Target: Mammalian cell entry related domain protein
Amino acid sequence: MSKPINPLAIGSFTVGAVALVIVALFMFGGGQFFKSDKVYFVVFFDSSLNGLNIGAPVKMQGVQIGEVTDIALQFDKTSIKIYKPVVVAIDRSRVIGSSGRAITDEERLALRDRLVKAGFRARLETQSLLTGLLYVDVDKHTNKPPVFAKLEYKGIPEFPGILTTSDEILHSAEEFLNQLRALPLEQIVTDFADNLREMKDLLASDELKQSQVSLAHAMEGMEKAVGTLNRNLEPMLKSTHTAIDNTNLLVQDSRSMVQDIKPILASANNALTAATAALNKAQDSVAMVGDTFGPESALIETLESVNDASRSIKILADYLERHPESLISGKHN
Model:
């Protein structure tokens, strides 16, 4: 005959099962079911998570806004790559929207998109160099494009992450080393050695030695020419100054001569003017004689010659007044 079932044992088993379910939900769900005052995001980091622990702070521009609630490994069978999802819980009371109130679950995706568009990225930073502990820093990195793993992790929306500063330095150094390895170093060294050998042969060649001797002779000749020029330059300058002084005196003398000639030319001009007037009157008188003194008579030709001479003297007087130096140097064309 079987023993009767103990109700206490059944009740204890049921309570224990419910407690295990609650603990499992809390552990594997990151506590989302009990923390309605939190907003959750997952960041897939490529950097090492050594030093990042659950409970590590999450900061935005130096202000702690949450903490790390979950760290795991996720295997992608398509790309054969292991991802490291890190779940961060943001305290609603630390992130206030434009309305002045805490953000809701419906607003978190819009908030994420606005932050990503503004250049915010998540990156691991060191809390202390002594302990080596890490924290998640959310800050502006507008020069880093957002990269999403596009993986599903417990239904939590993704926030883009970037490499740590040390990882970026190591990555850049690795790329530089790879480029250095790709260079034909052996050929470069060989070419450099050949160039050194050719340079050595050139320095030891007879042509270069002869060129050096020729250059020395040329420099010596140039030095002598400069010395001769220096010795002759001062007398040449003195002669030039003397010639300039003589020219100035000559110009002054020519100006004085012009001043002396001006009255003579003026008197001659007046006399010619009076003669011209008298000849014009005589011409008028001759014209009244009639046919006896025609247009081609000697008297008319004489009057015209005197008139032309008067004009020439006027032109000469004007020219000498404008160009007195022509008395010495002659008329210039």
Summary: The CA atoms of residues 172 and 178 lie 10 Å apart. Residues 206-289 form the longest helix (84 residues).
